[in-house]
Amino acid sequence: MLKLENTFTSSLPGDPNQDIWPRQVENAMYSFVLPQKFPLAKLRILNDVLTEELGLSTVKIDILEQTLTGNQIPLSSQPYAMVYGGHQFGQWAGQLGDGRAINLGEIYVNGHPYTLQLKGAGPTPYSRAADGYAVLRSSIREFLISEAMYYLRIPTTRALSLATTGASVLRDIMYNGNAAYEPGAIVCRTAPTFIRFGNFEIFSRRNDITNLKLLADYTIHQHFKHLEGNVNKYLAFFREVARLTCDLMVEWQRVGFVHGVMNTDNMSIIGLTIDYGPFGWMDNYDPYFTPNTTDLPGKRYQYANQPYIAQWNLMCLGRALLPLIHDDQAIVSVLNSYRAQFEEKYLTMMSSKLGLDHQKVSMNFIEELLKTLEENVLDMTIFYCQLAELTHETTPDDISTLFLSAKYKSDDLSASFFGWIKAYQSLLPQDKASILEKKRIMARSNPRYVLRNYMLQLAIESAQNDDFSLVNTLFELIKNPYDKNKEAEMWFSIRPEWAAQKIGSSMLSCSS
After folding, report:
1. Is 23:81 a contact under the CB 8 Å cutoff?
2. Does pTM top 0.70 for this prediction?
3. Which positions ≥6 away from 269 have C-beta within 8 Å?
4. For residues 45 and 503, what is the distance between their CA atoms, to the nearest angstrom?
5. Sign (positive/negative) of CA torsion 281, 282, 283, 289?
6. Half-sphere exposure of 273 (CA within 13 A, CB side)
């Protein structure tokens, strides 16, 4: 039997209206809503490792399948959708909410809660003009990237299952008037909480301080219990959220991940990567890269901007919490310290990627590296893996051979590149033990295999033809992203030319 707790709904006020038509929901934090039933739904992938971790491996597979497709709700479940607001592309968007996500309840593992949430299981009062469904392509992307980030050691929501609904969903993938029907799907995702910055913003904007305080007290008690004894626990809470967000941004920069749509409603209050839409992985190093065509031409959410957009989003959260904190200068102080924290942690992270003691590395040295990576059109992931093979004795000819495989253009490496490499070699250790330690640090910091969009697109196209073998292959690949695997080396290569201008590989939108 699958037993769920209902801590969120039993602790906080809900919407008394159980209609699912789109509307403004006030004086409540959620609305009860049932998933739609899909008679032809089929479970395609069950994450066995996560199933075991959540204590679900003893549940009969047919019951689990019915639950994870929304066709059978456990008696203990009180399904609901949360209300929240948010700033989208820098502008206040008003009420948003779980437009296609339905929370089933929580599982407690060793005292820690994990909410089960079905994404794509039907409409809610927050669906607005949308239908509440999800398509297979975006569901495959979310399932695989959730687990890829987990194995990369980056805080993230997890994916428990992927199912097809057997129904078709109408979508205009690039918002250009070419709508078409696509196969529908449901992902069951899980996290300690799906509360976002926007959950707090909506109550502050409505001047609903009573519910703002209730939500803050609940969140602190459930997820930041160590802060409850603070004189100003709300300020301590804000400071902790800023720290977690800062750590997450450093991790995104480390692996070259670009979220694509860092709206405040897509920012987790516990510092998780959440809501995988038009995300993308850095191929050739480009600080201006964004995979999201909806973000053009301003590129607000480009790779280089992510840490500073996070700070801006924290400013919005701080403003929302001001009625509880009662000290605007303290909020400004937290925001200022975020910048200093990020720069310090970023320097430490980049030192690890280079296999160097952080005391030997300056920001100027890093900036010169990034400039030459951009100028030489070098693949970010491959470059750092190849750099781990470099020693103080590597000759210029061997350097060319080593790094040309990371180039997206066939011309030679620049003089500035060799200049930086020479400076780097002068910092490298010469004794055998230190060289091995350098390689160990770099191997832990630099993934060899990442989920590039073209890989996902290949898997999607196969799955749309009812062949999930490549989805499963990539699912196994991502479980060991740092270890060289002879059978997986085909994925350790620059993006193929055909993917440079292909929808789903180089061009994505918020459509899902």
Report:
1. no
2. yes
3. 193, 195, 196, 197, 199, 200, 219, 223, 241
4. 25
5. positive
6. 31
Q: CB neighbours (10 Å) of residue 338?
A: 22
Annotated catalytic sites, by residue?
A: 265
Find residue 85's DSSP bridge partners.
Answer: 95
Q: In the chain, how long is the greatest CA-to-CA distance?
A: 73
Q: What is the length of the chain?
A: 512
Computed over every residue of the chain, the mean pLDDT equals 96
pLDDT of residue 209: 98
Q: Is the peptide bond before 291 cis (omega within 30 degrees of 0)?
A: no
Query: CA–CA separation, 187 vs 205, rounded Å?
Result: 31
In degrees, rounded to 5, the angle at the alpha carbon of residue 10 between the alpha carbons of residues 8 and 14 is: 80
For residue 65, what pLDDT band results from cuts at 50, 70 and 90? very high
109-124 per-position pLDDT tens digit: 999 999 999 999 999 9
- Which residues make beta-bridge pairs with 215? none
Read off the pLDDT of residues 395-443 as tens digits, 9 standing for 90 and up: 999 999 999 999 999 889 999 999 999 999 999 998 888 999 999 999 9
